Amino acid sequence: MKKVNGGCHCQAVQYKAQIDEAKVILCHCEDCQTMSGAPYRGAVVVAGQDFDLSGTVKNYIKKAASGNDRIQAFCPECGTHMYATAVDGDPADKVYNVRLGTVQQRNELSPTIEIWCDSAQAWLPEVAGTKKIAKQP
Q1: Per the structure, how many domains does the chain have?
Q2: Can you give the pLDDT at residue 122?
Q3: What is the pTM of this model?
Q4: Strands of 58-63's sheet, edge to edge?
């Protein structure tokens, strides 16, 4: 486990977390492409009990490909996307997909898994050493 910290661009929302470095992902789904404005989005999976958030986020609820509703949390001041998580459940029991770009130690974290590779842009270079999954694992 590795301790990390991060926050939004304006620092109104900040967090501390403990992460498993093997759970750094790249998501190529069309929703992540659209919502990030990039060809994919990086995230690190964090257990709720290991995620300490300070500040207030604004939530946008989107329908995932699975049909489940997912919270997309962002800073209401600067708009930085912070994480995604399930709508229901105790926050300590949830799993958070914390946006990799918000992690201060992001340069120390390498992706291990790529998901929704069926939607990946054909012009992207190969990311060496990642397990590639066609859709959602």
Answers
A1: 1
A2: 95
A3: 0.91
A4: 58-63, 69-74, 81-86, 95-99, 41-47, 24-27, 113-115, 131-132
